[in-house]
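thought: fold this chain, then report.
action: predict
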Amino acid sequence: MVRGSSGAVHALRNSCPESPHALVASRRGRFDAGIECKLHGLQFSLDGRARPGTGHADLTALDVSPLSGLICAKSRSAGGAPNPRLWFDTQPPLGLTGLGPPVEIPVAADWKAVVEQWLEPPPHLLPSPAEDCIVWHAPPLNDSAWSARLYLRLTGCIPPVAWRRQFTAPNQLIELRPDGLSVIQAVPAAPGRCLVRRLDYTVLPPEDGARAVLYLVRRLAPYARRTMLEVAESVQRGMIDFGYEIAAGGGSSPAVDWFRRLLAARIPALAR
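observation:
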């Protein structure tokens, strides 16, 4: 994601069009002479267009949407037309600020095994599959548990917001809460291994206990909790030892079935 000299923001796929490899390794910085591929001698302007005489293909452009102070990027549809769907189908609270750099947790499991753990909520949660996302609401917090009781007290000054989750295929979970928003991603790292990356944003000033609230959120929400990731690692070992089969009489949640069908449609080899 880059900002040109005119101030316009452009989101580009970080991959060379000649041969897939990352063009930019650093997370932040400035470009002096545009974007370069030193391997193939290619140069691109900050809007992704190939410089004359240096190549025929442009960098792949992504759709960009502002969202409560954040800037989100999303792949375009198969035909290349701008995708009108937003990343999040509700308006997060204004004034979100980041709570430090992304947290990355190494997991000894395929990223798909982690996603399937996300999509197996308790039975009383009923996700509604859409074209490429699933949205569901968490049950209301009560004051019977210490973590929930303290969370409700620390966020009592914030207008109430439904605690809701949206999974956007193929690998991203967005969690909206009264105190802010978290983005959790399952990122492939190697065969049978991935990183669970978490980005947290808050509406609370740091001096008002934003980090204490985030600690409570991580206790109350299981999606990047070590115990859930250990289940994904156990599933990975089971797939290696016994094959990816469901036992007789077993089953999976409708959301997991939807996810597997979606992947099989996009990656035909998985259907086998």
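thought: worth noting. Helices lie at 111-118, 146-154, 210-220, 226-242, 254-266.
final: tokens above.
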